[in-house]
Amino acid sequence: MLENLASMGYPLELTYTESNMALGRPHIASAMVKAGHVDSTQEAFERFIGEDCPAYVHYEKFSAQEGIELIRASGGVPVWAHPYLFCGGKVEEVLPVLVAAGLMGIEVFHPHHGNNKVNRLKKFCQEYNLLMTGGTDYHGYDLEHPEKEKWQLNQFHLPLSLLEPIKEAAILY
């Protein structure tokens, strides 16, 4: 995407990196604002780096089963992130397919999961013997407006007891 933007006359230098953070489109969008190429990150996505926009780079996607196999082969624990934001089918229908493919957990606690959804996901975890996780989709500070951070790291104050089973599962595989 950086090459595409440069060839379109919008060169960028990405200087914000953390040692363990992969750079993604939000970082590119923030760099575009910082460089004065756009007025907002939303504009960057809408005009340049959103899907089907001129600088977007399509990538080959793989199936959920292939992703689960890759994660497990790497010693990781495959967890379905924010299942109620998934657009590929109903959770109740997709979950058994993912479990059969080797899914090991579900992100139960998420800002878009109200109490009813959290309780349903907890029941699924019990029914399918899955690990429970939680998150906020925290991707670091909004570089444009760091004071207006939408979600905070561990805003749910989840207990560390949720982490231990995940660590154990990673060791087993």
UniProtKB/TrEMBL annotation:
One MF annotation (Gene Ontology) recorded for this entry: 5'-3' RNA exonuclease activity
Tree of life domain: Bacteria
Signal peptide per UniProt: none
Name of this chain's protein: PHP domain-containing protein
Organism this protein belongs to: Waterburya agarophytonicola KI4
